[in-house]
From TrEMBL:
This is AsmA-like C-terminal domain-containing protein.
């Protein structure tokens, strides 16, 4: 009888299959189908074409499941397997599947007490919250009142990741109340680190986490790389309030961001950081902000004090940014006060703008200082060598020692319209001018109405001018060179 059971189990397989189906059907809500089952207790069993569906949606399927029973453990009443190989596995999990689930204090997630010494996932495809994850790995499973998984090796491919995510080791324990991830070691070429996380299923506000990432490399949609170093995240629960602290350094777009510090509160789908600061190229910036996880959006309010953008350019004030989960595309508005732009003192700069793939644009940026009001339309601005802008400037007794004093003028009055485009190939400028009491060839005039247009090459202007010049008191002067 024992020989028949071990080597010729086909006489019992129909009963075994029926028992499994009945046991599972009583434990789950849905429809389970098993194509065929063959093998024996010595060489193992193969279960072909398994699928489980609910509400006409396939939740789980596998082309083949190989099962190698551990007879030494089974003899003592423990359902144990030396090896289980799941081939071409598919698992679909969406948040809607949790709707309507009621947890009982005495509930159990187990219908069997099961041990699997080696659970191999060969070509597994997981769909979780509409994200695709392809898994290959080897796990150790203990399944009783809790589910415990030990990771021997696990590789995950996903469009959500920069590249393959490699887990060297780790432990997962799941019960009806929480999921505990401990000693999770990640060693991929784009991210390395360690994590310990507890997620409370019944009350997320009781969760906690400790994450240390040595390096993290990300690439934005426009190809811009971000390198993050020494990332530390600590999340603790205090009276059902999740408090979090993040620290790290980063390199982004040829700038170094150091001593990044963020502290805040995690409340359901919102992450509100009440204190954030960083040092950019040795300069300090502080901010506050909000992240909405469900809406996949974020907003930041940054305070800046004499931040040096370029030589002779210092800005102070407030900048507000907001976007979806995308660092290379966002919108914002700014109000800068008492700043210095190219050595010119500016009272205020204000307006709304957009940033997309390294290019800044704006329908209107207003610039005000003593004696002048300017409004600019920025078609594109990448840096000081790549931009395309159009604007108007009103001069009312404008006086600036760094510019007009060397021409023996007290002030400037008039209106200008400017179109300026500069890139690696061209540097063209077009000016419509209505100017009074200025200089031409170091001689004063009463007014000039006209146009100046041309190209700037090696800091020299080459172009043409046309218009009406009134009241020009000119005297003899010497030409250095005449080109004709």
């Amino acid at each position: 009888m024992v020989f028949i059971f071990l080597f010729r189990p086909e006489y019992f397989i129909d009963d075994i299959e029926l028992i499994i189906k009945n046991k599972l059907s009583n434990s789950i809500d849905g429809e389970l189908n098993i194509g065929s089952m063959n093998g024996n207790f010595v060489t193992g069993f193969k279960v072909n074409e398994v699928d489980y569906s609910k509400d006409s949606t396939i939740i789980f399927s596998a082309k083949e499941i190989y099962i190698d029973p551990d007879l030494s453990r089974i003899a003592f009443g423990v359902i144990a397997f030396s090896e289980v190989i799941v081939t071409s596995m598919y698992f679909n999990f969406q948040s809607s599947q949790l709707d309507g689930i009621q947890y009982s204090e005495k509930s159990t997630i187990s219908f069997f007490n099961t041990e699997i010494a080696s659970l191999i996932i060969d070509d597994g495809l997981f769909v979780i919250m509409d994200q695709l994850y392809k898994l290959n790995g080897e796990l150790v499973l203990n399944y009783s009142n809790v589910v415990e998984l030990d990771i021997n090796s696990l590789n995950i491919h996903s469009p959500a990741f920069q590249d393959v995510l490699v887990f060297q080791s780790g432990n997962l324990i799941y019960n009806n109340e929480e999921i505990e991830l401990s000693n999770i070691i990640i060693n991929s070429h784009w991210v390395t680190g360690k994590a310990d996380i507890i997620v409370n299923i019944e009350d997320f506000q009781k969760s906690s986490a400790s994450i240390q990432i040595d390096k993290l490399f990300l690439e934005l949609m426009n190809g811009s790389p971000i390198n993050i170093h020494k990332l530390n995240v600590e999340i603790d629960s205090n009276n059902r309030i999740l408090n979090g602290i993040l620290k790290c350094d980063a390199d982004f777009q040829n700038r170094k961001y150091t001593d990044i510090f963020i502290s805040g509160i995690i409340n359901k789908n919102l992450i509100e950081f009440d204190k954030a600061s960083l040092i950019v190229d040795g300069q300090h910036i502080s901010s506050t902000g909000l992240i909405n996880i469900l809406e996949k959006s974020w907003e930041v309010k940054a305070n800046i004090d004499e931040f040096e953008l370029t030589k002779n350019t210092l800005i102070s004030g407030e900048v507000n940014l907001n976007s979806d989960f995308n660092l290379d595309h966002f919108n914002g508005n700014l109000l800068l006060i008492n700043s210095l732009i190219d050595s010119v003192e500016i009272s205020s700069i204000s307006g709304e703008f957009g940033y997309n793939n390294g290019i800044l644009s704006s329908d209107n940026i207003s610039v005000k200082s003593a004696g002048q009001i300017s409004n600019f339309h920025i078609y594109s601005f990448s840096d000081m060598d790549n931009f395309n802008i159009y604007g108007s400037i009103e001069l009312r007794d404008f006086s600036d020692k760094s510019f007009i004093s060397k021409y023996a003028l007290d002030s400037l009055n008039g209106d200008l319209k400017i179109a300026w485009m500069k890139n690696f190939d061209v540097n063209t400028i077009d000016l419509d001018i209505n100017l009074g009491n200025a200089l031409l060839y170091q001689n004063k005039f009463n007014s000039f109405n006209g146009n100046i247009s041309g190209e700037i090459v090696n800091d020299d202007f080459r172009g043409s001018s046309s218009g009406k010049l009134i009241g020009w008191d000119y005297y003899a002067y010497n030409w250095d060179t005449i080109n004709y």
